[in-house]
Amino acid sequence: MDAKFLEILVCPLCKGPLVYSKEKQELICKPDRLAYPIRDGIPVMLESDARELPAEEEVE
């Protein structure tokens, strides 16, 4: 994921910054505890496609 691209992407709900998880191919919003998938190199920034992070899952 291009670092400059990451700088302009924000969470669609809270407009906060996202953390890139290379291992899981997700963009993570820490405050909302949502992980947006990256499919074929394209971030899917839809709340309906986001995965809720369980309380026990560490956020990088």
TrEMBL record:
InterPro entries: Trm112-like
Domain of life: Bacteria
Protein name: UPF0434 protein GCM10011289_00780
Pfam family, one: Trm112p
GO cellular component: cytosol
Family: In the C-terminal section; belongs to the UPF0434 family. Belongs to the UPF0434 family.
Transmembrane segments: none
